[in-house]
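Changelog note: in this version the structure field was regenerated for every chain. One regenerated record is shown below for reference.
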Amino acid sequence: MKTVKEISRLTGISVRTLHYYDEINLLKPTKITEAGYRLYDDTALERLHSILLFRELQFPLKEIRAILGSSDFDAQAALEEQIKLLELQKNRLEGIIMSARNLLMKGDGNMSFSAFDKTEMNHYADEAREKWGHTDAYKEYVQKHSDSQDKTDEMMLIFADIGKIKHLSPQSQEAADLIERLRSFITENYYTCTDKILKGLGQMYVNDERFKSNIDRAGGSGTAEFTAKAIEAML
């Protein structure tokens, strides 16, 4: 058993924060002594480790509590998924560092902003927040996820092709073929893209400014809206 002060020294978390975690039922002590001291066993420390990983991934405390409190929470599977998210953050930071070094060495004529694009990471994190460990789609996404930037670039090429035909009707065969290509790409690289998921993505492409901006950048202004209409026409 470890005391609050011992855990604070071990982790760098303040005593007040640990008390707060107790107050909000995020991390309860294993035992409270007659003198009022909180004590934590190894199981509690394992939970704290998971909490700290979620916090490192910018998950709000209330969401962490909901995830850990789920009856079907799988700590091992969650750890594997946390590692994937941390790897995404690591790759993004490495890209930013490389971009900064290139700017330092070669000057502002070699500026690149692609490393700052958080679309893929945000999409991944959103999936985790909504579906953590509860759906086959999310588990499949984790299993299939590999080089995020390469996959993002490939998807943007599809949107670029969609942008080339946005002067046509969203109900055209050309549009339907490209939407089917998009659906197949998502299924092969992320998760099974059912009609329901595809419809939701179409709505997100126009309602989420991050996605709309990236899609329009790939295919030209209006591509995101055309894609949404083509998806709606196809379903």
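Spot check on this record: The first helix runs from residue 4 to 11. Residues 162 and 178 are 7 Å apart (CA to CA).
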